[in-house]
Amino acid sequence: MVIPTDPAALEPLVLRLEELIRALRAPAAPRRASPVLRFGAVEVDPFALTVLRDGRRLPITRTEFRLLYVLLHRPGQVVRREELLAEVWGPGVRFRSRAIDTHIARLRQKLEADAANPRHILTVPNLGYRFDPRDGSLPPASTEPTEVLCDLDVVGL
Question: Considering the entire predicted model, what is its pTM?
């Protein structure tokens, strides 16, 4: 590695270091309010990565949270198993469709009042699943699920 001895050659480096120091000294941006999503007795906070049912925090796995998040941001739409695979596990991942069914069944047991007769996470035979926000309200999705899912990767989910 060659270290420049000409002071003019160091100028870009000095300017970049000064810029970084200014950025570090700047006050932190205020954290944006978390858009808590609600349906029935369930509250989902995508920034805190928590799910509450009747005010109690549920033990949700990373995969369950991702599945739920994708479904929540597409209310009323059929989400095919292939789409869930790509959005939750990543493109190119191959599972048998029964693996998704198993994760959805566990999610229903945790979220639905009656998992045998779900009201919110519905099966669309031979296609996938549909989220129905009956008995609750969801704000319109302002971000694509993949944007927040990338954030989930950063925090280890």
Answer: 0.64
CA–CA distance, 27 with 38 (Å, rounded to integer): 33
Write the CATH number for 62: 1.10.10.10
Per-residue pLDDT reduced to its tens digit, 25-56:
766 555 556 588 888 889 999 888 899 999 99
DSSP code for 11: H
The answer on pLDDT for 105 being more than 90 is yes
Q: CA 67, 70, 74, 79: dihedral to nearest 10 degrees?
A: -60
Taking only Cα atoms into account, the Rg of the chain, rounded to an integer number of angstroms, comes to: 22
**148 compared with 66, residue with greater pLDDT:** 66
Residue 101: inside a domain, yes or no? yes
Residue type, 77: Q
Q: What type of residue is 16?
A: R
Would residue 53 count as lying in a domain? Answer: yes
Residues 37 and 120: beta-carbon distance below 8 Å: no
How many whole angstroms separate alpha carbon 16 and alpha carbon 18? 5
Domain count of the fold of the chain: 1
Query: Is residue 9 one of the residues assigned to a domain?
Result: no
Q: Is residue 50 part of a domain?
A: yes
The pLDDT of residue 92 = 73
